[in-house]
Amino acid sequence: MKRHRAQLAGAILCLAQLVGCEHQDPPFTVFGATSLRLVLEDLQRDPGLPQHLAFHLASGASQTMARQIASGARADLLLSADEAWVLDPGLAHAFDASSRSPIASNRLAVVMQQPATDEDPRLHAAHDLLAMDRISVADPLNVPLGRYTQAWLESEGLWNQVQPRCASAFDSRMTLAAVASGAQQAGVVYFSDARASKKVQIQFVVEGERAPLIRYVAVLPRASANSGRALELVRFLRGPTGLELLQKHGFLPPPEP
Fold it and tell me: What is the pLDDT of residue 88?
């Protein structure tokens, strides 16, 4: 009798587990800016993330992902390093502009390769870049980091002088890698990427009235099949756990609208 009851209890437990599995929401898909990759990977592993908010991550340049979504790629949420792409007339039809929500901000940093020696030049301000022959920047036509870099150097009145010395990279990580490898003498990158690398040395951080406003935004694709969970993930990312992860990786809280 006892054995029968044990077998029955085991069967009930297995059935409950199977029912739970059937109702478990499958992970949805998040497209995230390359510079957010480490934050989002940490978020995926965070034990405080509710199980129903588990997500698959695809990372890349913000404009590339916005174009992919506009061309039919299946994504439930876009986390972009620049909201300009989702407002672009050629792409705006693919996104719900009313769902836009700022999630973080960042800063620019000028870096050189590690390790530095006493003989190596030091860069302290924008005009010091004129002493460099090879400078790594992100492509200003296709990458938010490049747009921010150009805007900053234009505000300093230096873009036309610096541009001929620049080699354009496809995204923020490639911009950093070109300096870390020694292929370029200096580079303009996100502060969050620079502080995570042991192969570059931060020369200075771009701050003050001429610093560009770098605002990361979350936005729903109109074709999102999991908009409710995607918005809940955005709220989680803007909450205490998300802000702690962002700050851990060198990001700042989102700027005021």
Answer: 84
With respect to residue 254, please indicate whether it lies within any of the assigned structural domains.
no
Query: What is the average pLDDT score of the chain?
Result: 89
How far apart are alpha carbons 91 and 98 in whole angstroms?
Answer: 15
Residue-wise burial string across 29-51, b where 16 or more C-beta atoms lie within 10 A, e elsewhere: bbbbbbbbbbbbebbeeeeebee
Supply the range of the domain harboring residue 229.
2-105+214-248
Q: Which residue has the tokens 């990279």?
A: 169
- 162 occurs within a structural domain: yes
Query: Residue 30 in 3-state DSSP?
Result: strand
Question: How many angstroms separate the CA atoms of 123 and 240, rounded?
Answer: 36
Q: Mind listing the pLDDT tens digit for each residue in 114-150?
A: 876 666 778 999 999 999 999 999 999 989 999 999 9
CA dist 66 and 44 (Å) reads: 22
Residue entry with tokens 């609208």: 257
162-172 pLDDT, tens per residue? Answer: 999 999 998 88
pLDDT per position as a tens digit, 19-28: 444 456 899 9
Residue 65 structure tokens: 């992902």
46's tokens = 């965070």
Q: Tell me, what CATH number does 180's domain have?
A: 3.40.190.10
DSSP element (H, E) containing 110:
strand 108-113
- Round to whole Å and give the CA distance between 164 and 12: 72
Strand duo 108-113 + 200-205: pairing: antiparallel
pLDDT band for position 8 (cuts 50, 70, 90): very low
- Residue at token pair 């705006």: 92
- Give yes or no: residues 92 and 219 share one domain: yes
